[in-house]
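During the reporting period the student researcher (J.K.) took over the structure-prediction task from the postdoctoral fellow and processed the backlog of single-chain submissions. One of the processed entries is reproduced below for the supervisory committee.
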Amino acid sequence: MLLHGLCMNDLQWKRKGHDHGAALARDLAYTPVYLHYNSGLHISTNGRAFAELLETLVQLWPVPLTELVLIGHSMGGLVARSACHYGALARHEWLRRLDKLVFLGTPHHGAPLERGGNWVDMLLGASAYSAPLARLGKIRSAGITDLRFGNLVDEDWNKRDRFERSGDRRVAVPLPEGVACYAIAATTGKTAGDLTDRLIGDGIVPLASALGRHANPRLALTFDESRQWVAHGTNHLDLLSRPEVYAQIKRWLAASG
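J.K. obtained the following structure tokens:
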């Protein structure tokens, strides 16, 4: 099951003639299913709806289900994590069938561009002359403001002003238990340790955010070292088409554990 990113759709997995889902069907005999969701809604809203949809899909699958894999690009990875959270609360059957979860450039701890937009709102709102522009900034969707820190559950935004400048008050949501989780991050830097890794990452998501790293141990995600991989000289959308990215996904999915 492939989950697209912000402001994208299920058809945009095909980029530069390549589609990870179609390639996995050809090489590893997977059946690709592409989710289409409204990325303007809160991530938790989409996560809960996706969990329910997966429960129905697993129940109605026409042949015995031998393996279930989720691949999320960008926001899609957050929707997948949110679905795992709500699937666990609802004791869904599909979560017990989930074998692997692959994240491609997922902003587990947010994206600086949304935080920058939040600062611009504050500065514009400070002046009577620029206040109308600040009101325009507040058109940003719920899904986009969730990307400030990587909100996954209702408690992260419910009864809060999502445009208010505030710190990271997320509920800690660990990776799902019993599921092999993999993270691919991209950086436009050419070599490991490049300043670009820390400041820009893939142009949208910093390297640390994509790999789940956080200074607060409560929020840090524990990806095994063998289940992390960094694509250098690669931007956020290149994760959908670069041959080396697909090769890494294929290696992980072809492995038994």
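The committee noted the following: Residues 20 and 246 are 6 Å apart (CA to CA).
J.K. will present the remaining backlog at the next meeting.
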